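User: Fold this; tokens only.

Assistant: Input:
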Amino acid sequence: MIDKIKKIYSSDFVKNNLQLISGTVIAQAINFGFNIVLTRLYAPESWGVLSFFLISCSIFLVISSFKLDINLITAKSEKEIKRLLNYSFTITFVVSIITFIIFLVLKIFSNTSVKTLEWWWIVGYLVSTYLLSGRQILWMLALKYKLFSLQSRTLIGEAFIVNSIATLFFYFEDLGLFIGNFFSQLFGFLWLFINILKSKYYISLNDLKPKLLPIKLFKKILFIQRHNIIQGYIDLFQIYTFTLIFSNQMSVIGYYFLCIRVLQLPLRLIFGPISNVFFRTLFDKKLHSESMKGFYLKVLFMCIALLVPIVLVIELYSNELFQFVFGDEWLEAGKYAKILIFWIGLDVIKTPMIQVFYLFKKQNILNVLSFCSVALTIIFLIYGKYNLSITLVLQGMALIGALFSLIIIYTSFNIVNNYDNSLKAKN
């Protein structure tokens, strides 16, 4: 028994996960501790403004690097890595400027929710699009080089900075939240870049400078990355369509934002690192023509076992937990959590499993299933906004999301199973 335990904890998969999880645990503990304070300093409306900003910004983050950061994992040479970095940061620079121009125009000429935003949020679209996209590119580069300790420290630093600064500037209301997020994004970008620069890998500042790329090359990259970009949008709208459709009700968005943030806190804590290392391990197994089915099922059952107690706690005690931890004003967010936990749990479990579609270049299957899920969700939300209560809207959205998450997980398993069967046939 002792030998089995030693064997488990000596495996690269477990050791790499423990490195990332340790940093994630500390980061999420910081977030949770500060949330108790921040929800008492900031009104639901302020959180609603932050949520709307982050989600509307994410619409452009999906295409900010044309998803080339994903290709860094499978790059086979330093030359290819440098080329991907150059393309990624050039496209990010262009998209950041376009994002700023679009929201500036909406601020001046439209009657949308953007019109109500203060000017610092408009400037924030330019800065945040570049910093968040750049941070994601460098994060995937760190994953490529297996710099899990660096990723762990990055998470801790980001959590401390965003929360401590937001606490100091609470007097400025939603501006305080903006300042905290800006400095956290700046730290994450610079910290990753400086430490990767100091490592043994030959990455230079020149690789990050934007350069003129031919329009034909832009079109070619966009065509090649179309499946990854489509999936990025689908993932975004799956959870945050609610925020965009109900953007005229900032307090409702605020409750929803805190609910999703709290639910994803323990789930991302556990499943985020698993997803990163899971993809890397599957890539190595495919590279060496090794069986995947056993490893896939082991990770899937482990995820389910970890999810069950979290679901039970939220279903039984979410109202009391939100009221006690965040104050009476946030009881409504606790009611949202009870409705959404099963769907959010399945959605997070789905995250590592969908790596299978990318590994075997079957993103078209994933895109079709995900698109159907999002399309049904959008139709239902638009109908529900004018005809149903918020409770019924959330229940319907959760049911649709949970159903398609199960279908996607099952489909990914079939892909792995077919791969293993083809290996047996060859042998």
